[in-house]
Design brief:
heterodimer; A: mainly alpha; MetI-like fold; 12 helices; 71% helix; B: Rossmann fold; five-stranded antiparallel sheet; 21 strands; elongated
């Protein structure tokens, strides 16, 4: 009986938290399907009286959004790939080797992670304009890398440390060079760590707003979060809320898909069976 | 295949601690040598120096006559089986075994052929497509061995490969390894802390203690002619009994009375005020079961039997005794080194299973003093050792191996 009661409580709290978390999302979806002209009039309802696709049509025909979407995808993917590759090597060195300045490197990485981004916006703005990379992809990728790397290095070195030393030694005795051992044994074993890091980095770049709005001025490099703030309605008398919601739904979908795809890859215990256990 | 030769090998850690100290050992081509000793004696370090996972501080390591000190592990062409197997969990059994060949870009059909051969030899054929996580301990062990076999390496190195298996499986795998080595005839170095494994496997055993090589020889040589107290106490189960004694005027005083020390072995010792006598449990017999003719050659004494254990094939009897504190300290130190903890000074005797001796009674025991070992109480050296003793059985075995 006690167990039953306890499990009911778990269900109750689970549902509560789910509603709490999903309510804004649901509202977002609902708004995105409402008629932009009339959604504010008459008596308000949670779900639209008539479901319309107009908002989505507007969003996808608006060059402001489509170019921003392209920028977002490109910048996030490049920044993620670079961050994962650099972090992989750095984390491996930190986990496996002893070198002077290792502690310093780790604490510096942590310090960067704690550094307020807002403090960097002003100087970066000037610096980027002088360097001629203001409002370019690379101008956003560089600061994204800076802020994504510390976390990536910390996460991945934790994963590397879990891999038994013997794996690598066995590979070396089997005739592998250090690089072969890394590529054929260590990286596959650290795959969950690599995927976790990649997803975290991708989310960070995908959602970033402050740098995106400060270091861009045109369609060339503006990402979706920044572009959303420039949305206007089809005419200036229309409220842009429903368009913004439709755009938000569109940019949320890739994130959801990513999580669903990689959920299975992000599982610990891949090393099970490597050693006695 | 190749001979391995170690010359004055030293491993000194940065804190100055010598894990392996001046070890010289020659392993012939095709020989099976066991490195044995209690934990921390440097046996694993020595093995890791041979394979190249540990730097050699000084000395020379030659494999097939070539100095290997500076070579990377991959250039030494040795195969190693790790204590925890170190299988690659993301690869199937097939790919695990094939891994060394994949690194060398061996053509696919040859990889398949050699993996299948090894799998057949190790009875792994039906498991080839499984992942290591789904295998039992013994199967993982065999995969690790398969990975070593396909290499066609110059030598096999085993680092306590059976210590993670349960007792029954350990016995099976032990025979398996011995058979495999015999079949392949590859030079093998095998590290273990288990004296049974050491004695049953291998052509020769090298006993290490605190980084120093104590004695190298066949199981019979180590058992019958141990060089010192350490080797005597380490080899044999139940271990050799150590008793205080004194040698004077051709007679040995033991806790069970005085016996003649005029025989060929004991007469070598000469007068000693305090010695440690070594008697293996099976040197004793139930006096009632000894034929009268033999009985007079040995010494019969009465002892208080504390506990008996009947094992079917043998009967162990425990006889407590008091020893002078000087000897006790020495023996306690030895116990610590051997990783065993003896609660009290007691004699363990292995008697015939038909003996009627029972717990808590007095019993008449008999032993042949001529088989007794005498150790120097201060240095622990065996004073009765005949270093040149040759065992016919060893020679016969060596002949058989050659053929």
């Amino acid at each position: 009986m006690g167990d039953r009661k306890a499990s009911n409580w778990w269900t109750f709290w689970g549902v509560l938290i789910l509603v709490w978390a999903l309510f804004p999302l649901l509202w977002m979806v609902s708004l995105s399907f409402k008629d932009p002209d009339t959604f504010r009039s008459a008596e308000p309802t949670f779900f639209p009286k008539t479901w319309v696709w107009d908002n989505y049509k507007t969003v996808f025909t608006d060059s402001l959004f489509t170019s921003a979407f392209r920028n977002s995808v490109g910048i996030s993917l490049i920044a993620t790939a670079l961050a994962v590759i650099v972090a992989m090597f750095a984390a491996y060195a930190i986990a496996r080797m002893n070198f002077p300045g290792k502690k310093l490197l780790l604490s510096m990485a942590l310090a960067i992670a704690m550094f307020p981004q807002a403090a960097l916006v002003g100087p970066l703005f000037n610096l980027w304009r002088n360097l001629g990379i203001y409002d370019t992809w690379i101008g956003l990728i560089i600061p994204y890398l800076t802020f994504a790397l510390p976390l990536s290095i910390w996460t991945m070195s934790a994963f590397f440390r879990q891999i038994p030393w013997e794996m690598e030694q066995a590979a070396q005795v089997d005739g592998a060079t250090a690089w072969q051992a890394f590529r054929k044994v260590i990286v596959p074993l650290a795959a969950p760590g690599v995927f976790t890091t990649a997803i975290l980095t991708f989310f960070f770049c995908w959602n970033e707003f402050l740098l995106a709005i400060s270091l861009t001025s045109t369609d060339r490099a503006r990402t979706v979060p920044a572009a959303l703030s420039f949305f206007t309605g089809a005419s200036q008398f229309q409220s842009p809320i429903t368009y913004i919601m439709a755009a938000s739904v569109v940019v949320t979908i890739p994130v959801v898909i990513l999580v669903l795809i990689f959920q299975r890859r992000i599982m610990a215990g891949l090393t099970a069976g490597a050693v006695k256990g | 295949m190749a001979a391995i030769s170690m010359r004055n090998i030293v491993k000194r850690y940065s804190d100055g601690f010598p894990a392996v100290n001046d070890v010289s050992l020659d392993i012939a081509d095709g020989e099976f040598v066991i490195l044995v000793g209690p934990s921390g004696c440097g046996k694993s370090t020595l093995l890791r120096m041979i394979v190249g996972l540990e730097d050699i501080t000084s000395g020379d390591l030659l494999i097939g006559g070539v100095r290997m000190n500076q070579k990377a592990p991959r250039d030494r062409n040795l195969a190693m089986v790790f204590q925890n197997y170190a299988l690659y969990p993301h690869l199937t059994v097939f790919e695990n075994i094939a891994f060394p060949m994949r690194l060398k870009n061996v053509p696919n059909d040859e990889v398949t052929r050699r993996v299948n051969e090894a799998a057949a030899l190790l009875q792994l054929t039906e498991h080839l497509q499984r992942k290591p996580a789904h295998l039992s301990g013994g199967q993982r062990q065999r995969v690790a061995m398969g990975r070593a076999i396909v290499r066609q390496a110059d030598a096999f190195l085993f680092d306590e490969p059976l210590s993670n298996l349960d007792a029954k499986l350990r016995g099976q795998m032990r025979t398996e390894i011995a058979r495999l080595q015999h079949q392949l005839g590859t030079t093998t170095v095998y590290v273990t802390h288990d004296q049974t494994e050491a004695m049953t496997l291998g052509d020769r055993i090298a006993v290490l203690r605190k980084g120093l090589l104590q004695q190298v020889g066949t199981a019979r040589q180590l058992y019958e002619e141990p060089v010192n107290l350490f080797v005597a106490g380490f080899i044999g189960s139940p271990p050799m009994n150590f008793l205080p004694g004194r040698i004077r005027n051709g007679e040995a005083e033991t806790p069970f009375g005085t016996v003649s020390a005029a025989g060929p072995r004991l007469s070598k010792v000469g007068d000693q005020d305090l010695v440690i006598l070594g008697l293996r449990p099976e040197y004793f017999e139930d006096a009632r079961l000894v034929e009268p003719a033999r009985r007079d050659r040995g010494k019969t004494f009465t002892a208080e039997v504390d506990v008996t254990e009947w094992l079917g094939s043998q009967l162990y009897a425990y006889v407590p005794y008091d020893a002078p504190s000087e000897i006790n300290e020495r023996l306690e130190e030895l116990e610590r080194e051997l990783d065993s903890e003896q609660m009290r000074t007691q004699l363990v005797v292995a008697l015939d299973a038909s003996s009627r001796i029972h717990s808590g009674g007095r019993a008449e025991l008999w032993f042949d003093p001529e088989r007794m070992h005498v150790f120097d109480a201060a240095t622990g050296d065996n004073l009765t050792r005949d270093p040149d003793r040759v065992f016919e059985a060893d020679e016969a075995e060596a002949e058989a191996n050659k053929a």
